[in-house]
């Protein structure tokens, strides 16, 4: 759903050394700088074409069975543009197999939605789960079925071991990470930066200086989609990973240290340096808490040279909302990597994994298809999408920014950290109005109460993890 690139806290995780994280961060930074300086007015209109204007490869690389007359249901929390683009993928599966696939929109948290469907005897055949913790819960509840040999073969062929591992529970493959995200980006309105004489910051201190420069020019510096708690967890995770380092990050993700740890205090105190300045946030804390993620992006790129805010933090998928605002990526809107807070810049990733709930030939065939570059290429051409599949032709991505982000994602290999809240039990890290989402919303409202925020986070984590 919602990620410095990170590794799962589940079985099979690896603790990356600081040097590899720096290398991954440098790769992202370099790719973005090159793309943004080179692309000019590339707004994504060359969909399906590579940098040289040629068509992306569309050859069939995976064999699928004939499934004439078979009906399948697939559920995900995607809506709007995301849902429309995913349906294009499902339509291609229908063409190749003869199956009939129905997309069933799910509510967040999807585990609760699936629970009601299963209780009613009508679960979807396949579900797209946006958290590592949700996959684990689905397995524990005996809802999820293991991936078949054909899907596993596609994963081994197309995915790095790290992306395979985060779809495993107790060493067995269940999830296929179809959609990935780079959640260490800040988008900015180029007119605002030009008018203010602001520069892209590389460090947290420089970000605060840039924010003040934009504020002095008459524009509110930052837009925050605080109504969606996951946005706030991403803020914390980027700061924590950069400041505390990857080993501490893993320890907090695995609950080997508590939320009352001094490293959490330090990260929240740093976060409060920005969140505590109400004039820096569009609408102040109250306004931010009533602003959902899509609006936090669009209001940054509408209103000419007097938008609601000059910058907005979030992942590559914010590009779809930038385009909704009729802004051209690369000219009206640009991005810079999340600034370095500690010794290294953060590089956080997340994604959505396909999991089979009703084991059948058709459901396993869809899982196999989603593990192939054929499926990922379709959405890549539509934009607003990154795939961890290393065999997706970069020419499939519609603009220079997305090609650079995809290259950095795949190029990082296994040197990443996965979204911490998405590794947690859903009751703590993935439920509106509860757990970490609610606690950080409360902290946004009162960023002076660091100790109180830590106490709430620890109490809710203990409850969710069972101690």
Automatic annotation (TrEMBL):
Gene3D superfamilies: Periplasmic binding protein-like II. Keywords: Transport. The keyword Transport applies. InterPro entries: Bact_solute-bd_prot1 (IPR050490), SBP (IPR006059). PANTHER family: ARABINOSE-BINDING PROTEIN-RELATED (PTHR43649), OSMOPROTECTIVE COMPOUNDS-BINDING PROTEIN GGTB (PTHR43649:SF29). Belongs to the bacterial solute-binding protein 1 family. This is Sugar ABC transporter substrate-binding protein. It comes from Streptomyces sulfonofaciens. The lineage of its organism: Bacteria, Bacillati, Actinomycetota, Actinomycetes, Kitasatosporales.
């Amino acid at each position: 759903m919602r990620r410095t690139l990170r590794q799962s806290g589940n079985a099979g995780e690896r603790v990356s050394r600081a040097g590899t994280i720096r290398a991954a961060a440098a790769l992202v930074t370099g790719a973005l700088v090159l793309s943004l300086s080179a692309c000019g007015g590339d707004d994504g209109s060359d969909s399906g074409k590579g940098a040289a204007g040629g068509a992306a490869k569309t050859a069939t690389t995976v064999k699928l069975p004939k499934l004439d007359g078979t009906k399948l249901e697939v559920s995900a929390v995607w809506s709007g543009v995301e849902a429309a683009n995913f349906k294009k993928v499902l339509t291609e599966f229908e063409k190749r197999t003869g199956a009939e696939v129905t997309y069933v929109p799910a509510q967040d948290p999807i585990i609760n939605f699936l629970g009601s469907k299963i209780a009613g005897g009508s679960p979807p055949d396949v579900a797209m789960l946006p958290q590592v913790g949700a996959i684990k819960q689905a397995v524990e509840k005996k809802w999820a079925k293991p991936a078949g040999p054909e899907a596993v073969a596609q994963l081994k062929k197309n995915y790095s071991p790290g992306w395979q591992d985060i779809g495993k529970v107790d060493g067995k493959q269940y999830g296929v990470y179809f959609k990935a995200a780079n959640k260490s980006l800040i988008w900015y309105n180029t007119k605002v930066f030009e008018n203010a004489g602001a520069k892209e910051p590389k460090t947290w201190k420089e970000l605060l200086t840039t924010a003040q420069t934009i504020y002095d020019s008459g524009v509110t510096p930052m837009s925050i989609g605080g109504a969606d708690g996951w946005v706030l967890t991403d803020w914390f995770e980027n700061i924590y990973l950069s400041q505390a380092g990857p080993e501490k990050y893993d320890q907090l993700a695995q609950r080997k240290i508590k939320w009352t740890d001094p490293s959490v205090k330090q990260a929240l105190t740093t976060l409060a340096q920005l969140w505590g300045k109400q004039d820096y946030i569009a609408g102040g804390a109250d306004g931010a808490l009533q602003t959902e993620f899509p609006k936090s992006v669009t209001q940054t790129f509408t209103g000419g040279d007097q938008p609601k805010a000059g910058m907005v933090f979030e992942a590559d998928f914010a590009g779809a909302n930038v385009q909704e605002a009729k802004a051209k990526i690369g000219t009206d809107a640009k991005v810079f990597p999340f600034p370095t807070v500690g010794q290294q810049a953060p590089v956080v990733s997340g994604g959505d994994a396909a999991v089979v709930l009703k084991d059948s030939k058709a459901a396993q065939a869809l899982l196999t298809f989603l593990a192939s570059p054929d499926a990922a290429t379709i959405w890549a051409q539509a934009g607003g999408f990154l795939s961890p599949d290393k065999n997706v032709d970069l020419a499939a991505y519609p603009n220079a920014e997305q090609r650079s982000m995809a290259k950095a994602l795949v190029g990082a290999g296994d040197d990443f950290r996965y979204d911490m809240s998405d590794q947690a039990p859903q009751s703590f890290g993935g439920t509106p109005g509860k757990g970490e989402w609610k606690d950080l919303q409360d902290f946004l409202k009162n960023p002076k109460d660091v100790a109180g925020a830590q106490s709430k986070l620890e109490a809710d984590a203990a409850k969710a993890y069972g101690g």
